[in-house]
């Protein structure tokens, strides 16, 4: 099994699609860092001057009119029917501060989790695609038949392919995520604010990165299985696209309550450690009015972890069963 | 080691087509391939040769029946004997984007054969330099060579070739034939399925003929040919009428064939000369018409095709 896995790893690395995928991942990494650079770049002198002028205008306006505005507002408030909103909620006119104008500095601890999560999407996608082709192409080319005349123990063959795809992507994902993490840190340290990056922040980021490595490895193995089930790379990709559009897009929009049972939210909940989602909740009030609220909900990390674990186990078993029984022509 | 390399009993396989129709590919095949030498596995298109071979190799699941290879039940014990089996089923299939050499290296590593073996088998099959080209760019003959090279990685005792000469030019065909004969002479067992009967007749020691997934005849080439039609002799004699009368009276069947008479049912060609000479008719020429594998095959498999 170990020997077979090593052979499969060698095959994975020798494939052209893998090479193309690595180049693609490298380019996306560079692109992300460049985007971060532009995002974090401070304003030019002209832009700063403009922001300064805007601040001065706003401040002058505040000096001139805030007392009067407050008075008018308080009068308005007095006329509100009961129950009244709080006065401070309705009528506050804080003094404008210079930092409210122009661009706020980019804060490392704030942007990094999003970046890692975004990276985990494209890593998972690349891993799935390469995994699907890794196994699917063997069926479309027929090479699997020849392979099985050298190693007829199907479950070993199956296991070695899944393991090779999964382990092959661990270092790839780790390198990509580490480059994005450290690259962003360097950029933000120079251009923005990374001063309050505490040990806890680093710990959380490392944990997100670690889980993103895991989901990438899983995506590679699941890609293998879908490639096996459908026997063609293109079919596997078509199924994923159809799922993303129909289930995650259309279905989730119509049936918001179904989101906790779809893959994406569970993926997010696992990678980010809890994920937020929104559902519209409507109810008829006491006075007969029909009110709808957009309510934020949280899907727990545990839910995501269990969901992904069960999903993976079911697919691995299904794939093994199919491959064990399938007639190879 | 027993003297049987492959045996199947009551082997059956039914395929289900896309539209749910059932196709019985193999129905109760009893096959016995003696160890050592070349065994021809003959049958019309669609008679179940490839399916039988796939079942032996564990690529396709049998619905019923038992199979053994070197006395080991397969597919249960296939892992134990697979190292002794080299097989090419239909056209050779490898990873198309890898070079021939890379393909062989992966296979060698999978079975734990030393890497140096790859160079050796490439040399043996005269692929040499072309080993460094992509498999996709190979001609059919080169693909076939690579497939043979792959089987040699294992140094097998049993080689299974499914229509190995399909699409090859005469030189390629001869080469394959010589390879098979060479392997047979080394004491290895070669099971070769083919349509080209003249071809098989030249190399095979024993043959099995199947039709509609069932065994129709089996044995040495001589036995199978002999068992088909009764020997026929072609006789040249002056007086056709008298000769026909005499031989028919002796229970033989006589037909005119140009200047000759075709005599069937003679226990021995000597009978023909003796009976005619008794009546003072002298045979000027007598040729036994040897039935060949092709005519036996066509006779046996008449109406057995697709
Ligand atoms: N995967 C399959 N699905 C459905 N039917 C199949 C499948 N493979 C083979 N068959 C059918 O099984 C029968 C036997 O096919 P098989 O390929 O074993 O014949 P063969 O003797 O090798 O023929 P040929 O000489 O043409 O190669 C045929 O009727 C064929 O159509
Ligand atoms: Mg065939």
The description of the largest β-sheet of chain B is: 6 strands, mixed
Helix segment tally of chain B? 11
Amount of helix of chain A: over 70%
| Mass-distribution shape of chain B | elongated
- What's the SSE pattern of chain B? EEEHEEHEHHHEHEHEEHEHEEHEH
Structural class of chain A: mainly alpha
Task: Report mean pLDDT of chain A, rounded to a whole number.
Answer: 88
Strand content of chain A: 5-15%
- Relevant CATH superfamily of the largest domain in chain B: P-loop containing nucleotide triphosphate hydrolases
Strand arrangement within the widest β-sheet of chain B reads 6-7-8-3-9-10
What CATH calls the topology of the largest domain in chain B is: Rossmann fold
CATH class of the largest domain in chain B: Alpha Beta
Instruction: State the share of residues found in helices of chain B, binned by percent.
Output: 25-40%
Main sheet strand line-up of chain A = 1-2
Number of strands of chain B: 14
- What can be said about the biggest beta sheet of chain A? 2 strands, antiparallel
CATH architecture descriptor text of the largest domain in chain B = 3-Layer(aba) Sandwich
Seen as an oligomer or otherwise, the chain set is heterodimer
Distance from first to last alpha carbon of chain A: 24 Å
- Helix/strand/pairing category of chain B: alpha/beta
GO cellular component, one term (chain A): plasma membrane
Organism (chain A): Kribbella sindirgiensis
GO molecular function, one term (chain A): ABC-type transporter activity
Transmembrane segments (chain A): 20-38, 121-150, 162-188, 208-230, 237-255, 304-323
